[in-house]
Write a structure and sequence with these properties.
single chain, alpha+beta, 2 domains, three-stranded antiparallel sheet, 2 helices, 9 strands, 14% strand, rod-shaped, disordered C terminus, Calmodulin binding protein-like N-terminal domain-containing protein, calmodulin binding, sequence-specific DNA binding
């Protein structure tokens, strides 16, 4: 009887121990699963952060590459513009040299004798300098009327500055006059002949009652320029 009771007590103790072991194992398994889940979550978050950083770095690299490409294009463009400016300056110098050879000095000539006028009020007159169309009086003779001359005078385009600026009046001395500094503010490509001429006519208040024919230069082209380029004719 005593042995039977001891045996039952032993079996109860054994069952209790197994239950405790099972509970412990279950707890360990639960903790392990929680730890694994936490680690997986951290690993996923790390991967996402790493991918986001890689995308950011790649975006920066792409942006820098585009900026470098744009800088290269800008440098090429500036170099091209520099060459164009140099060519434009050389062309303008050449054109002005040709113009200078055409009109080094204004001479006020007598129509009858073709000699420089040395007497009379026209001897010390003042002349206005204007711009003419390049196709004005392309004939060999110099016969024209005042209205014909004035109809070929070129004014500035609408909204533009005066076409010709600078010393727009010439004072005759001993029948001779010298052009001063003159600046064109627009090119000549917009008129039919694509060229200009410089013309001169007696200023108001001088030589009244005397018929004096106007003067003109040879035709020349004026091209666009990127910077102000003033020229003087002596």
């Amino acid at each position: 009887m005593v042995w039977h009771m001891n045996m039952l007590n032993g079996m109860a103790t054994c069952n209790k121990s197994e239950m405790q072991n099972q509970e412990l194992n279950n707890l360990i398994e639960k903790i392990r699963e929680e730890v694994e889940s936490y680690l997986k979550g951290r690993e996923k978050a790390f991967e996402e952060e790493k991918n986001a950083e890689l995308q950011y770095i790649n975006a920066l690299k792409e942006k820098e590459a585009k900026e470098l490409q744009q800088v290269s294009l800008d440098m090429d463009r500036l170099q091209t513009e520099r060459v164009e400016i140099n060519l434009d300056r050389e062309q303008r110098t050449k054109e002005w040299a040709e113009l200078t050879n055409c009109i080094e000095e204004l001479e006020y000539l007598s129509i009858c004798t073709r000699n420089v006028v040395q007497v009379g009020p026209e001897y010390v007159a003042k002349l206005n300098v204007i711009v003419l169309e390049g196709n004005f009086n392309e004939e060999v003779d110099d016969e024209w009327i005042k209205e014909y001359f004035e109809n070929h005078e070129v004014k500035e385009r609408e909204g533009k500055r005066p076409l010709l600026t600078g010393d727009l009046q010439v004072s005759l001395k001993e029948g001779l006059g010298t052009l001063g500094d003159l600046t064109f503010t627009d090119n000549s490509s917009w008129i039919r002949s694509r060229k200009f001429r410089l013309g001169t006519k007696v200023a108001l208040g001088y030589c009244e009652g005397i018929c004096i024919r106007e003067g003109k230069t040879e035709a020349f082209a004026v091209k666009d320029h990127r910077e102000e380029y003033e020229f003087s004719l002596i």
